[in-house]
Amino acid sequence: MASASIVSCSQFSQCRRLLGAVDERQQVAVLRVGSLGVSGGRLERGRSVVAAAKGKKEKGTTSAKDFFAPTLTEAKKVVEVPVEVKTVVEVDRVEVSSDLKWVQSAWRKLVRSLASLPLAIAELAVIAGLSAAGTVITQGERPAWYFENFPDSNPVLGFLSWQWVLGLGLDHVYTSPIYLGLLVMLAGSLMACTSTTQLPIVKVARRWSFLTTAKAFSKLQISDSLPRARLSDLGTMLSGHGYQVFARGGALYAFKGLPGRLAPIGVHAALLLIMAGGTLSAACSLRGTVMVPQGLDFRIGDALGSGFLGPAASVLDSRVQVKKFFIDYRENGSVGQFHSDLSVISPEDFPFSSKTISVNDPMRFGGVTMYQTDWGISAVQLRVDNSEPYNLAMAALQKGDNKLFGTFLPLGDQGSAEGKGISILARDLQTVVFYDQEGNFVGVRRPGSKKAIEVDKVSIVVDDLIGSTGLELKADPGVPVVYAGFGGLMLTTIISYLSHSQVWALQDGAWLVVGGKSNRAKLDFERELNELLDLVPEVKSQEPVESPLPQ
Q1: Which residues on adjacent β-strands are paired with residue 339?
Q2: SS3 call for 215
Q3: What residue ranges in 349-420 does DSSP mark as E strands?
Q4: CA distances (Å), origin 83, targets 9, 11, 160
Q5: With pLDDT > 70 as the criterion, what percentage of the chain qualifies?
Q6: Is 149 a residue whose pLDDT tops 50?
Q7: What is the mean pLDDT of residues 224-247?
Q8: pLDDT value at position 413?
Q9: 93: helix, strand or coil
């Protein structure tokens, strides 16, 4: 096994381990060296170039002497550097593959393409358009619903038929491959922009940079020179106004508002968090709807199902009991609010929690959210000819905003072929309408009024209308991620408006040369800096010469 030496150069700030060398004119070059004696060196393009005094040449390799021969004479002309051999290390091979170079080049081109601002804007525009379509077009319905509402004979907007809706996946926009693929592309654009633009800007902003010549100050946004002023006094003033001050020799550098430079990275991170939460919701969320009559219960798992990152088994096995469903009505008889009194019962029949929910006021339990979304009438409770109360089931005759529920009370023999009876209708929980067996209107009664109505010689008392509550259950692990992303987005957007201000100063004899710049609120920055310069005390013992700034 060959070996190589570690050299220490008195005139170089860093020393390199001589593991080998690669000829840039060849695709692959391998160097195996013996003990190297180094006679001189120079700094070329940021690399330490050394000249080898001896080396062993093997078949298929290039000796150190031959490889560095063109450099040896030139290096001696540049400078003779005393060196000291410190350690000896084992070396295997140093190779640079052309395939690796091709992969690196292709990766850089891909990153530059993704970081393109027009591409990111186009991605956002398409995502916004698809999101708008998902908002306008009802999602997740059966194909028959789209056949009815987007017919070929009368397309919506003149072109949007069920073929377009189902063919483009507009019935499930947020889980379609196109939408999710665009989210991945936008995430890639954000990460590429962060790595190629934002991170380098932050690195430059954090770097302490000192100006060492008065001429350099004339290129700044604002520059001035103070006679009979000291650098230390200016540093004290800047520090008192929130600047971080650094000094080296007769030069000073100060800055404040660095979070304003970091905020764009936070904005990108927040957007990535929002998209990650949205993707998580699309892939792992569980949804279900259920219509439950008052007094009955249902198992959460039956309505919701189960899936990856879903609720715990104990939550899915729990039952939800609908203790009561009722509607608040306004004075004009219109509906004010829907309420459902719910109670969650454990598999062991222990009550977990209870809450009366309403529209926009859901109940949350174990990662499951229960929303009030619909209502209905499941039965009417009657007493016929002073009988005991009994429930007569009602069916929905009309759906939508103008709901209508009805049932039929047979008369005579139930097995009769005539099938005559009393029709009972209700549009809400306040009134019940009766029609005789001929279809003629008889009258209206309020539930619980205890006032009988006679229809076809039958006395009927309406004790109650039993409502049904329509609940939507949702378990979405992406919601907390999305909320965190939006919170971070609002915070970082506000922080991004902070100005990043920088001030430089140079003590040039009795004169103090000062300059600065800011990325935002430039007029305010100039006013602030001028006010600070006015506060710098004058040292009267020194006699200033002509200002060092170019006139």
Answers
A1: 326, 358
A2: helix
A3: 351-358, 363-365, 368-384, 390-393, 395-398, 404-410
A4: 5, 10, 80
A5: 78
A6: yes
A7: 91
A8: 61
A9: coil
How is 475-500 classified by DSSP, letter by letter? E-TTHHHHHHHHHHHHHHHHHTTS--
Q: How far apart are CA 222 and CA 242, in angstroms?
A: 19
Which residues, listed in sequence order, are joined to residue 507 by a DSSP beta bridge?
Answer: 512
399-435: per-residue pLDDT in tens? 877 899 999 998 866 555 566 889 999 999 999 999 9
- Burial (0-12, 13-18, 19+ Cβ within 10 Å), 286: buried
DSSP run (H or E) holding 300: helix 300-304
DSSP 197: I
| H or E element in which residue 48 lies | strand 47-52
Classify each residue of 482-502 as buried b or exposed e, where b means 16 or more C-beta atoms within 10 Å of its C-beta: beebeebbeebeebbebbbbb
Q: Which two tokens stand for residue 292?
A: 């439950």
The CA distances from residue 257 to 209, 232, 444, in Å, are 16, 22, 73
Report residue 43's pLDDT band, with 50, 70 and 90 as the boundaries. very low
| Tens digit of each residue's pLDDT (9 = 90 or more) over 52-85 | 333 333 334 344 444 334 443 443 343 444 444 4
Which tokens go with 403?
A: 């709901």
